[in-house]
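Q: My labmate handed me this sequence with no annotations at all. I'd like to see what the chain might look like in three dimensions before we decide whether it's worth expressing. Could you predict it?
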Amino acid sequence: MSWLEVHRGSAPLIVAFPHTGTDIPPDIEPRFVSPWLARKDADWWIDRLYDFAAELGATTVRTRISRSVIDVSRDPSGASLYPGQATTELCPTTTFDGTPLYHNGEPDAGEIARRRTAFFDPYHAAIVAEIVRLRAIHPRIVLYDAHSIRSHVPRLFDGTLPQFNIGTNGGATCAPALARSVEAACAATPWSQVTDGRFRGGWTTRHYGRPEAGVHAIQMELACRGYIDEPAAFDEARWPTPYADTRAAPMRAALTQVLQACLQFAGAPE
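A: Here is what I predict for the chain of 270 residues:
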């Protein structure tokens, strides 16, 4: 499957990239209002930002498929992860801002099932396979779900999002020591942070986080301003802004410390 990228490392760390993909299958693309709208809410450049993870020995799992085709970080049953709050679906019908994605003929149950079989299930099968492989080597591992979002999305949250948004679903998906270690690494930077604020962890974090079974899952939602410039208006001419190594370097250094904190936790005596 050319759209599914798995890099296998031997360290007790998996970094997942559920939303960096921009590929849209040719049979689906004409149904969207515009390809740009269908890609607007990608976690732009996050796989490049974390491309040092392999050097730390981490395993990475990435889908190249756009989240607008199917969101592999949503509950496959269709249940909302944030009841009572605005969100997008397993197969989103709007952007984060509420703009319709489809001309008409939004995906029906049969089409959603087809996309789940084609893309969602293989992505998660790959994560499961890597969890099993690494747990056979290590007594505990960390699954780190890497995300980003614009700093201001009024439909989803008020005001300006903190720079680091750590998600543990209220402490259910990992040991407190892991959350504390990641928080400490973030606190050593000049930027703001929150744990289990607006983003408490997507389906991946909540589904696989089983501390009692040696699998500690944590989500990191970054505000985009930490590594790329955010324009005054997010239109097709101005978004996404390009990735630049110099611009992203301070955030890469900070995230290196975050992933090293995850590794130190996983390797520490229980």
